[in-house]
Design brief:
By secondary structure, the chain is α+β, with helices and mostly antiparallel strands. It has two helices and five strands; from the N terminus they run αββαβββ. It has a domain of 63 residues. It is 32% helix and 23% strand. A three-stranded antiparallel beta sheet has the order 3-4-5, with no helix packed on it. It has a two-stranded antiparallel sheet with strand order 1-2.
Length: 93
């Protein structure tokens, strides 16, 4: 950290990581959005397969480990913003 190259190297690592991890998972995502090292993922699978997906991500590299927060009552925090799923399927904040 502190080097002007740090953000570039981090982004290259994350792009490579997510390409390999998402291509090799048996649980496809509906949407994967990333800001630096935070991701917001929409998955069509149930909660039971959520832990399997997290374990898959964490098995891809010793250099990075993911944690997760799941939707509660149609809301999930992301980047200090509370995202809410509306009745029409759109996301509000």
């Amino acid at each position: 950290m502190g080097s002007p190259l740090s953000p570039i190297v981090s982004n290259i690592f994350m792009e490579d990581f997510e390409a390999k991890a998402l291509d090799s998972t048996p649980f496809r995502t509906k949407k994967w959005k990333r800001f630096v090292d935070d991701t917001c993922v929409v998955r069509p699978h149930g909660h039971k397969k959520l832990d399997l997906f997290l374990n898959h991500l964490n098995s891809q590299s010793d250099s990075i480990k993911f944690t997760m927060e799941v939707e509660v009552n149609g809301c999930v925090p992301f980047l200090d913003i509370l995202l809410s799923i509306m009745n029409d399927g759109f996301v509000s904040h």
